[in-house]
Write a structure and sequence with these properties.
The complex is a heterodimer of chains A (111) and B (112).
Chain A (H helix, E strand, L loop, with lengths): L2 E3 L4 E5 L4 E3 L2 E3 L7 E6 L6 E6 L5 E4 L2 E4 L9 E3 L8 E8 L4 E3 L3 E6 L1
Parallel strand pairs in A: 2-12
Antiparallel strand pairs in A: 1-4, 3-9, 5-6, 5-10, 7-8, 8-9, 10-11, 10-12
Chain B lengths: L3 E4 L2 E4 L5 E7 L5 E8 L3 E10 L2 E4 L7 E3 L5 E6 L8 E8 L7 E2 L3 E5 L1
Parallel strand pairs in B: 2-11
Antiparallel strand pairs in B: 1-3, 3-8, 4-5, 4-9, 5-6, 7-8, 9-10, 9-11
Classes of the chains: A mainly beta (111), B mainly beta (112).
């Protein structure tokens, strides 16, 4: 079946340094779109980025991600992490009838 | 104004008791979902619905029932609450099954 893999459960980075959260996927169906959701402490998940176009960079709030169908990846990156970026991040793919969520990566940005 | 609301926001229940979690959306979406969130497990789909008066099982439906009496409302029912059902529960809605989902604020359930 379809799956989304986030290999890091926890990522810690120093403020001002770059950060990369990995996301790979496996799908047996035509996948419509990919998403990165962000969940701040005690809040609901909300969409940070979305993409459905191969090899096109998508940006929002300083984060960017590029869908690479050749490598089945949709990694999330930021060139300079901020304290306010500390949150739980989910990668998700839209399958035939539902969103498939990864297990999430907790990002902690240290001063 | 919040488009997906949940009630209660937190609840303490006793083992073996009945618990009902409610969700209301004003997005005019056909699809609604119930997820539970546990540390280390991310979001896991319990039940979903794509039309009123019909519900479907998700990935972890055991111990849960769902009810969709109208397009706007979707309830999650724990007939016999157990300790293992202590978690945060999120409701979400979307206009299509594969589209972006909009989440409610969550309900923190503690079963003692």
């Amino acid at each position: 079946g379809d799956s989304v893999t986030q290999t890091e459960g926890l990522v810690t980075v120093t403020e001002g340094l770059p950060v990369k959260l990995n996301c790979t996927y496996q799908t047996t169906y035509l996948t419509i779109a990919f998403f990165w959701y962000v969940q701040y402490l005690n809040e609901a998940p909300q969409v940070l980025l979305r993409s459905s176009t191969d090899n096109k960079r998508t940006e929002h709030q300083g984060f960017h991600a590029t869908l690479h169908k050749s490598s089945s990846s949709f990694h999330l990156q930021k060139s300079s992490a901020q304290l306010s970026d500390s949150a739980l991040y989910y990668c998700a793919s839209s399958g035939s009838w539902q969103l498939i969520f990864g297990s999430g990566t907790q990002l902690t940005v240290m001063p | 104004e919040a488009a997906v609301t949940q009630s209660p926001r937190s609840k303490v229940a006793v083992t073996g008791g009945k618990v009902t979690l409610s969700c209301h959306q004003t997005n005019n979406h056909d699809y609604m979902y119930w997820y539970r969130q546990d540390t280390g497990h991310g979001l896991r789909l319990i039940h979903y619905s794509y039309v009123a008066d019909s519900t479907e099982k998700g990935d972890i439906p055991d111990g849960y029932k769902a009810s969709r009496p109208s397009q706007e409302n979707f309830s999650l029912i724990l007939e016999l609450a157990s300790l293992s059902q202590t978690a945060v529960y999120f409701c979400a809605s979307s206009d299509l099954g594969y589209a972006e989902q909009f989440f409610g604020p969550g309900t923190r359930l503690t079963v003692l």
